[in-house]
Write a structure and sequence with these properties.
This protein is α/β, with parallel strands linked by helices. The protein contains 6 helices and 9 strands; from the N terminus they run βαβαββαββαββαβα.
Length: 224
């Protein structure tokens, strides 16, 4: 099964992707599911998962969150409660475990996206070894090398902030069931493989332009 494990929705301040557009693109690209990982809030993932069920769609939405730890970002999948930001990575993960979350270190060596750097010694289930927003693959290669050295499963995600990015990178999930629980179990057991391609530069520039405009608007008018 194909799952994009790193998607942002309009519940992230730096994204304008509606849940309807995310779902539409995911279905068009043949995904079996995706994870909504908005910045420091689980609300978007919960709402999107409920929307997919209400519409009776054959696609699985995993609620999640991208938590801002004191050293960088950490993905926590399968949780429905927020985790306080700016805690140490170790404490962030401890709280994630208490909530039953599956932990993934995203783009660890991509500093411009608040990568955490070295993840050796952290209690993580998987590492994002392919992030399609990387203009240059050196950060992805380093993540792959470190994950292999430490024996940690590698996954992939688009890190989508606009609908066009959804599914650009995805993770092959080896599971006979397409449920949130089964997919998360497959990740924890290492039954995964990263797949996909880099997002074309024009699409990344479009996303960056939109983000810059929102920042200017907020600075001038105090609104997101």
């Amino acid at each position: 099964m194909k799952f994009d494990l790193h998607v942002h929705s309009e519940y992230s301040k730096d994204s304008n992707s509606s849940h309807s557009d995310i779902i539409k693109t995911a279905l068009k690209r043949g995904l079996d599911g995706f994870a909504i990982c908005d910045h420091d809030t689980v609300e978007g993932g919960i709402v999107c998962a409920e929307k997919a069920v209400e519409l009776g769609l054959e696609i699985t939405v995993i609620p999640g969150v991208e938590v801002s730890s004191s050293k960088g970002h950490i993905l926590v999948l399968g949780v429905r409660e927020n985790i306080e930001p700016l805690l140490s990575p170790e404490e962030t993960i401890r709280r994630a475990r208490k909530l039953g979350g599956t932990v993934i270190i995203p783009h660890p060596f991509k500093r411009s996206s608040h990568g955490i750097g070295s993840f050796e010694g952290l209690d993580t289930d998987a590492v994002e070894v392919f992030n399609s927003r990387c203009l240059f693959n050196s950060a992805n290669r380093k993540a792959m090398e470190e994950a292999k050295r430490l024996g940690i499963p590698g996954v992939a995600g688009s890190d989508s902030h606009i609908p066009e990015m959804v599914g650009q990178a995805y993770t092959e999930i080896d599971s006979s069931e397409n449920t949130v629980e089964a997919v998360l179990r497959a990740i924890r057991e290492g039954n995964v493989a990263p797949e996909g391609e880099n997002t074309p530069t024009p699409i990344i520039l479009k996303q960056m332009s939109g983000s810059a405009k929102r920042k200017i608007k907020k600075k001038l008018f105090g609104k997101p």
